Amino acid sequence: MKFNSTYLPILIGAVFALGIVLGSKMNAPEDDRILAKNYSKTKLNKLIDFINTEYVDSVNTDSIVNLTVDNILSKLDPHSVYIPPSEQAEVAESMKGDFVGIGINFYMYRDSVAIIRPVENGPSAKAGLKSGDRILFAGKTKLFGRKLPSDSLFSKLKGVKGSEIELTVFRKSEQKKLKFKIKRDVIPLKSVDASLLLENKTGYIKINRFAETTYKEFKTGLARLQQNGMESLIIDLRDNGGGYMEEAVAIADEFLKDKQLIVFTKNKNGSTEKTFATKEGSFETGKVYVLINENSASASEILAGALQDNDRGTIVGRRSFGKGLVQREMDFNDGSAVRLTVARYYTPTGRSIQKPYKKGNDEYFKESEDRVKSGELYAKDSIKVADSLKFKTPKGKIVYGGGGIVPDVFVPIEAEHGNENVAYLLQTGIVGHFVFETLDQNRNAFAGLRFNEFLDKMNKTDVYFKKFQNYIVMTGLDLKFDKTKALVNRHIAAEFARQLYGELYYYDVILKDDAMIKSILKSKK
């Protein structure tokens, strides 16, 4: 398959833009909210009945209803969306924070299910499965040679906690077929990727989304860092598309003093709901930095805005996405759901950071392309802000509404001007596939290496850089890495570290020359 690199920033922006602010985890009862007038509702039902009983050809009326719902919602705003039954279970699971399964990271490589890495201490790791193993059969179900979609594979491997599944595996390194009996267990879906201590007693916590367990995960990481002597903290919200508002609010409360405003919402009736910090904050005095970029949205912007507007945190990076709408999820009887925008949220100074969407959904999600063209990713002066949307924090700092959180400290994208597609490419997961396939050819090349020895090996060779350049050319992408060699090499080495040693080793490599991290650590010296 060939890819057009022109669309990479649009693709990445759209993926992260789908992040949501859910105003409540409770589902509202199914009622007549979508179709306000009984007459219109009756007309729609009657039309479906006419098609069912009178139309000349057989028609799947369910699909027509889905199209109708999608069309209605598309006339409202970009974040009111319909979720069909086939997707709803997966979406709900990702926000829940765990699932029952066998605990592997995998993908379809050519015609087989390839294990990238078993989850540490998960059922598969305990049973003896290894990176590079191919799963041939799950019970008696053949999995290879069929190019099954991921949701079909998940359904074969998931099940009830404690239930047993027999896997037939081909281990390439031994050229053997092996059988494993694995008991399914609860597998966490982490929303906090890493919590670690950098230099100068600076803590670092990376949040990838705001799910049901995010605050609990964050609090655990924060407490551990404090026990290790942390004096200041970096919260990384880059590429975090959002999630539950309550989780972002709970995290903000850890840094704000009692009765400081965190966020407020307004519905169409003008009813306002304000949320204030409590006395429970555990890090109300140390320095806080928040990293954001053009893909940080919704709940990420609530947290960043709360700290910026209360003069509590320094926002570092690039202007965030600009989503200031609150959705409520409402279930239908067939397992589908609608996420309907029910309110707008405002930061403590009173600013709405929602960017305009009057030109339609397509233009709304393509706005990231405009940021590339305007040069905004490279210079803070290129950020377009309206003086009419200027606000002041309690200490007199100027902040802006109308389209995302503007950082206090601007850090340009890590790529040469005009070559931002390289930075976007590195976010797509293609590096992970390249590393897996490279390891699959010769895992012995890294056998027995301690982590420091691995780093020395990676620093002394251009072999993997050249291989990755060729790999990209083979996919059909016309991208050259000559001007971004250091950035690409860092991502390659970090992904090797992740697949060979584990998640924290990925961050050990990726953060060392990270431009935003460096700007913070430099300012502290």
UniProtKB/TrEMBL annotation:
Residues 175-356 form the Tail specific protease domain. The keyword Transferase does not apply. It comes from the Bacteria. One of its GO terms (biological process) is proteolysis. InterPro entries: ClpP/crotonase-like_dom_sf, PDZ, PDZ_sf, Peptidase_S41A, Tail-specific_protease. Transmembrane segments: none annotated. This is Peptidase S41. It comes from Flavobacterium hercynium.
